[in-house]
Design a protein that fits this description.
By secondary structure, the chain is of the alpha/beta class. Helices cover 42% and strands 15% of the residues. It has eight helices and seven strands, in the order H-E-H-E-H-E-H-E-H-E-H-E-H-H-E. The protein has a seven-stranded parallel β-sheet with strand order 3-2-1-4-5-6-7, with helices on both faces. Strand 4, helix 5 and strand 5 form a beta-alpha-beta unit. The longest helix is centred in the middle third of the chain and has 29 residues. The chain is globular.
Amino acid sequence: MTVLDQFSLAGRVAVVTGGAQGLGLAMATALAESGARLVLADIDRETAEAAREGLTSAGHEAMAIGLDTCQPESVQAMVDGTLAKWGRLDVLVTSAGIVKDLPATDLPLEDWKRTVEVDLTGTFLACQAAGRVMIKAGAGSIITISSMSGIVQTNPQPHVDYAAAKGGVIMLTRSLAAEWVRHGVRVNGIAPGYMATKLVLPWMDRPDWGPVWLRQIPMGRLGQPGELGGAVVFLASDASSYITGQTLVVDGGYTAW
């Protein structure tokens, strides 16, 4: 097997939560291009169906499933639907998430709870349900999506709830990796920096945010969603077979300063 062969995901099934758009869809597309059959799981079922149609029209195999990451029964239905369709589950990418930009002194408790519920608890529920299948199979790769905000404090925007939840995802990744490694299941993560998505681009027009962000990024630009493709394929594939418990930071050098 050559080095390039190790990156192939042919014959494998990958589930991407939050896979209907943005970073989730970009990573799902990369996995499909590497040969994986895709499950796009998203709370926005209509958008997920449109994304599925885009992938299938490009010659890839994909299905769409509605998902509420905060509801255990919905998460289990996602896993059951995957097994019913494809008969296996080899890769999970937990891309579903939300963010609030409110000062800590003004952050309503309900907003705090909602962010932690979606970004951290939702990630755990997806990992738990998929992990049970992978442990039984004796193999699998889970890739959590945290953020550079879970590693360093980003500014000037306030988002204590998001930072705390994403920091929790990083430790969740390490803990699950240590617990499940003996079962042949690897758990790693990706921590993106500022990416040019529909959620981020509008904030670039704020003179007190956009220019500050760019000055803090050594590369001097936002990342493109497609630039996560290589990272997610690497961690999903046999090319990273001796790597577990790690979070790969893709941030244009932001955390290097």
